[in-house]
């Protein structure tokens, strides 16, 4: 068997390659192997407007009025956004906002609550 790293989620030794992904058959975790990192963690940290590190599941507040693209409504300053998910890209926060639905936000326009 090849020298594949253990699963970062359950530490199983039964991982296998599928294209560019590594897969754990015991817990179903999929990850891409990084150079020199066996834990599958991203090195990029996403910070809010005040420099606090954001994580999945955090609650944030919008710090300025934001126009909603494709709509005439505005997301008001002080709107609380619960249970955020961090994603790759320009708009690095994926969330659902009551009254607006699913949207993506930039971390520079929010602060950790």
From TrEMBL:
Name used for this protein in its record: Alkylphosphonate utilization protein
Family: Belongs to the YjdM family.
Pfam families for the chain: YjdM, Zn_Ribbon_YjdM
Occurrences of domain Protein YjdM N-terminal (ranges): 4-32
NCBIfam families, per database record: phnA
Domain Protein YjdM C-terminal residue range list: 46-113
Natural source organism: Tumebacillus avium
């Amino acid at each position: 068997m090849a020298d594949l790293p253990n699963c970062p989620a359950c530490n199983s030794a039964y991982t296998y390659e599928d294209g560019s992904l590594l897969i754990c058959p015991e817990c179903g975790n999929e990850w891409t192997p990084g150079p020199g990192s066996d834990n599958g963690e991203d090195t990029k940290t996403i910070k809010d407007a005040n420099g606090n590190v954001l994580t999945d599941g955090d609650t944030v507040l919008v710090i300025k009025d934001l126009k909603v693209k494709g709509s005439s409504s505005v997301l008001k300053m002080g709107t609380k956004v619960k249970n955020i998910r961090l994603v790759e890209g320009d708009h690095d926060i994926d969330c659902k906002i009551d009254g607006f639905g699913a949207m993506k936000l930039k971390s520079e326009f929010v602060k950790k609550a």
